[in-house]
Design brief:
Elements (H helix, E strand, L loop, with lengths): L14 H29 L7 H5 L2 H18 L2 H28 L9 H22 L2
Helix pairs in contact: 1-3, 4-5
């Protein structure tokens, strides 16, 4: 006969899983606020609110997304931090001269381009930097 009382099940969460969950929550919440701010700025004038008031909603969204990335970076070990730092370094080294060249060339031969074009250069450079870093540290 077994007289041992059943013990309650305990679950342990690894620090990495908790950090990933926190990152996902903060980044998603920031993205939702960012999207709401952009959407609200689009319809705000039709209800009599200045568009820039509604657009202020993007600021906390940007802050949450940035903070999520900072927390994710801080939670990594030295190797993970080196990979992230190298990806960001490459993104900066690629995008800055390109954006500056486009800005100067707009005075002479290029048509005036929207800032979304510059943002796309930043994002593509970050993706390239991440790919190069991932290949290097395979």
């Amino acid at each position: 006969m077994n007289t041992d009382a059943p013990t309650p099940r305990t679950t342990t969460t690894s620090p990495g899983a908790k950090t990933t969950r926190t990152f996902a929550l903060l980044f998603t919440l920031g993205g939702v606020l960012y999207g709401l701010g952009l959407a609200a700025a689009g319809f705000a004038p039709s209800i009599g609110i200045p568009a820039w008031w509604a657009a202020l909603i993007v600021l906390p969204g940007i802050g949450l997304m940035a903070w999520a990335n900072v927390l994710m970076y801080r939670s990594g070990d030295e190797f993970e931090r080196a990979k992230v730092a190298e990806a960001i370094l490459l993104a900066f080294a690629i995008s800055t001269p390109l954006i500056l060249a486009v800005g100067v060339l707009q005075f002479y031969v290029l048509p005036e381009l929207n800032w979304i074009f510059a943002f796309s250069i930043l994002m593509v450079s970050w993706i390239l930097g991440t790919i190069v870093s991932a290949i290097r540290y395979r």
